[in-house]
Specification:
Two copies of one chain form a homodimer. In chain A, strands 1, 2, 3, 4, 5, 6, 7, 8, 9, 10, 11 and 12 form a twelve-stranded mixed sheet that branches. In chain A, strand 1, helix 1 and strand 2 form a beta-alpha-beta unit. In chain A, about 45% of the residues are buried. Helices cover about 20% and strands about 35% of the residues of chain A. By secondary structure, chain A is of the alpha/beta class. The radius of gyration of chain A is 18 Å and the shape is globular. At the A-B interface, helix 5, strand 8 and strand 11 of A face helix 5, strand 8 and strand 11 of B.
Amino acid sequence: MRSFALLGAPKTSWPLNLPNQLKQAQSEGNILIGVDRGSLLLKEMGLAANLAVGDFDSLKKSELFQVEKAVPDVRYSVPEKDLTDTELALWYAFEDYQVEFLTLVGATGGRLDHFLANLFMVLKPQFRQYAEKLAIMDQQNLIRFFNAGKHTVKKMREYNYFGVISLTAIEGLNISGAKYNLGNYSNTSPVSLSSNEFLPNQDTFKLSFKKGLVAVIQSRDIIRYPNI
Amino acid sequence: MRSFALLGAPKTSWPLNLPNQLKQAQSEGNILIGVDRGSLLLKEMGLAANLAVGDFDSLKKSELFQVEKAVPDVRYSVPEKDLTDTELALWYAFEDYQVEFLTLVGATGGRLDHFLANLFMVLKPQFRQYAEKLAIMDQQNLIRFFNAGKHTVKKMREYNYFGVISLTAIEGLNISGAKYNLGNYSNTSPVSLSSNEFLPNQDTFKLSFKKGLVAVIQSRDIIRYPNI
């Protein structure tokens, strides 16, 4: 099951052909989650979320009514809460809907404190268990998360570049089978080891580390500006 | 002296009226730095960088020639280097040009491993001294960095929202005079305390912490999509 949650960041960062991707995912039995304004955005592209989560304070009454009419499961959060709407959505997706993998879209661009809240979410003890079942995707980037151990990272087609980002202190990091390899790297602070590349004709690289949590961001140069 | 460095991220994220802002800054005696493709982008908006830094591998020969003709100080980096082009630019700006404050633009959006390399740059021991003299600005966000101590954060006009992001472990964080205050907060991992707000009719909030490095991201909802 490959489910999606749409957040409220500007459409300019959306993956290309997002409506079609989401439509197909839902038709194959995956669930779509609208996070706050994302619920309305799904509605506007002719899709109904299976689940909507938010305080919906950015929606007009008439817009919220549309969402409530279209979505079978609407869960209201309160603004002064410990968890963000996205964290609540993640929790419901994995615990109540038992999704196997969740991709966040509309989570980049826009207000960067929001993006960083999404990026750092998996560092919270209660969400760390979902780290390897979560992705963040936009028009140029695919972000995956990895716990300590040995990993083979598979290239997404046309995404030739990648960066390895330790979101915490890191110990004993190795990168092999890539353009720039690295052995037994440690750092006490977060660091973005950016601008690495898959080798030509090779669609994986190897990543291992002993301690920490790492994001791998696969990326490509922009292909075209979206129609907005 | 308020100097600027233009990086190569997509124009969609640029601050509004960037060419005019840069032109005025330069006319007031501040320096403009072009980082890699940013040097060409400055040229295209009718401005010549005072300093250009990069490996320029994304530029055609004719484009690089244009940059070399227009810019009095061009410094070439090598792709397999320990420092990113932006880090080199920062170093030259503060050490050789003795700038008092440097704002990075064109540093957000685009490839997110690049953005995170810029965000985490001040965590590196050799760059930590510049943390409070550095900002990252785009169309919706202004990022400032703070070392441990007591700070009064001034609101940028029309930027009603802010987030406090610890980029490291944090100890004894206090936020006061804001919509959501916080007392003696600690965390062993980075965290984005997002979606806070300045109080109405108040143009500062107070921030203090004992240990760590914090980014404050002031933001606003998008006003319009830029003409691109």
